[in-house]
Amino acid sequence: MPGQAAKVVITERQQVILDEFSRSRTESQSVSRRATLVLLAFEGRLNQDIAAQVKLGRDEVGKWRRRWRDSWEQLTRWECLETNRLREAIREVLQDAPRSGSSGTFSAEQIAQILAVACEPPEKSGRPITHWTRRELADEVVKRGIVPSISESSVGKFLNQAALKPHRRKMWLNTTEKDPQIFQRQVEAVCETYRDAPRLSAERGVPTICTDEMTGLQALERNAPSQAMRPDQPARDEYEYTRHGTTTLIGNLDVVTGELTSPSLGPTRTEQDYVTHIQTTIASDPTGEWVFVVDNLNIHASASLVTFVAEACGLTDSLGEKNKTGVLRNQTTRREFLSCPSHRIRFVYLPKHSSWLNQIETVFGVINRKVIRRGHFTSVADLEEKLSQFIDYYNRTMAHPFAWTYTGKPLSPRKRSEFCPPHRHRQLSKVKQAKLAF
Questions:
Q1: What is the Cα–Cα distance from 302 to 240, expressed in whole angstroms?
Q2: Which of 61, 94, 127 is the last residue of a domain?
Q3: Integer Cα distance of 317 and 322 in angstroms
């Protein structure tokens, strides 16, 4: 006589994760099938019905019901103590248990030492290279006597298991602000500016604009036509090129709409160039309020900019003398004046060397990838024309507000900011999350 089937109990959070696993195209087929099995068992289905639906034997269904029942208490603890661990814990329950077999060729201590070498710069081993390859890493661990011999594939397996990728490297920007309290206060000011932007726009029509410059954009013309891609062969560009000069893009990003507004293109980025750019931007609403997010470049706090803002805001008090007295005395006094909350036109300054806080940097990256990097330009005028065309194209098809939020956990598409409509969602890197925590 068959025994009673193991009772399956799941929480609401567990049900959400199991449902995702059952419909996932990236999870293994076995995990997806067993997640469906647990959900069906929770609905009270009989083992034979579940077996027919998930294409497993009745004994297999019974085994996984028991596995879930025996693991449920521990899963619930993970759910209460650390939600981030729950998903992985459920995946482990639904995976096959480790099978017995021959002991590994390398001990845990040897594997740890191999990974430690992989994390060292090759220069430390006297190798004049910038990063490890599998072959060189295998040669080094043998040379050090960590293992008598090892294949490149084994080294690659250990690197993959530890999620280490010596061949990859990314750039990042570290702030040079030494006072953590000042840095914290400036970061909060920028984040609060982004947070308040939708409200200011809705209530008073105040635009919040991120502005910065892309300098030295080269008009490069390849000396021969590019070759189109073919099966198993990417498109190819001629290696040699002719330089036709450079241009500078001074851009504006509307934080609320995500559009690029009033761009300026020209050969230089001078104090007067930037003042002219701000004048052109404000001309669309000369009597309205404006908020600009900028970095600490000297032209963003120049004497000319202070003079223009004072005249535009109707401030008749003496500004002093440049580099000597009053508001114009130095960069610090000018920034204090330009960032005054009582002014109709005000500037919010990023912490020193922290341009990653400026949202327009993200769009500059898009411009570099989609226009500059593979572009072919017959002249500077041609480059500027294509930049203008792309900005129009971006505003029509790609513009969207960025959701910059911080909850202490990686963001997901399901958790959008309160102010951001359901467009694409920008996930902050761990470095940025750490710096934005407050």
A1: 40
A2: 94
A3: 15
